[in-house]
What we know:
By secondary structure, the protein is an alpha/beta fold. It is 37% helix and 15% strand. The protein has helices at 40-49, 62-72, 84-96, 112-119, 137-140, 162-171, 225-235, 245-255, 258-281, 303-312, 336-353; strands at 27-28, 79-82, 103-106, 124-127, 146-150, 177-180, 201-206, 219-223, 284-286, 293-298, 315-316, 318-319, 328-332. Helix 3 packs across helix 4 (112-119).
Amino acid sequence: MSRFFSEKYRALTPYTPGEQPQDQAYVKLNTNESPFPPSPKAILLAAEAAAHLELYSDPTCHDLTERLAGHLGVSPEEVLLTNGSDEILNFAFMAFCDAAHPAVFPDITYGFYPVFARLNGVPYEELPLREDFSVDVDAYCGIGKTIFLANPNAPTGIALPRSEIERILQSNPDNVVVVDEAYVDFGAESCVPLIHTYDNLLVTQTFSKSRSMAGARLGFGVGSKALIRDLNTIKYSTNPYNINRMTMAAGYGVLEDEAYTRMNCAQIMETRAYTADALRKRGFSVLNSSANFLFAKSDRIDGAQLYLELKNRGVLVRHFTLERLKAYNRITIGSREQMETLLSTIDTILEEHA
């Protein structure tokens, strides 16, 4: 770092995104992207919007906000669109956390939470997952802190039922509970219907996974009008034009083609079940996932070694070095063809190690 770097950030360890190697063509199963392209309607509207890039985008995202609110069954004043769901998560740390309102989240979860906490100078606590990697709901009940829960969780894929999240909400009426639903469309229950019951609930989602728009960077939050006003204060104090014209148009096109999204989600869930079964037949332990990925380990090969050997053969998965996770690899659900390539490559590796 330079001698000019602010002292307050010198100890900051940034988030590490999934690797994006360019040295060869890979079967890319490491960053939870969709194997399907965006809706043709999204592509068409984005191309039309590209003809007007000399103009600023609408800072209110009026048309997309109206369309999304209708899709969710809420009012436009209860929705805020952001540059990916990462932006609204950062806004939440800025708006709802401080020395008097520290953050709390699981010790194994989305890796950006501790980064956002440290970036914003927020004290935080990490509560351990149970031995089976599930969230200990009782530990969050009445904790009196700003709670961040990924549901389904990452990298495990395990989801809590809505009733369990409701217990947390009921027992922390004076603290915001942020439910990060990046993967909710792959089989979990959304908490969006609860925002009219609990004014302390903020639900975040993204267009990156189920809606095939990871490269466009579009996310959103849903909550009470008061919470959304708070978050808008942060937005208009940082980056009012946070969503570009093409992304906004593509998002509208995606919502106009909900059948395409549902079809893709159904196919991914079907392929997930097929892949989980195939891995278990090969002796892998696979957690029950409600996301577009699987978390799996084998007693026949070390997790890091399997990751490296797959990579050497052109298949990318995600490996984590934390002690409790190092035996596992997180495997994005790609196309059926991609998963067949993964499985046949694993067979080759295991045969070589037999």
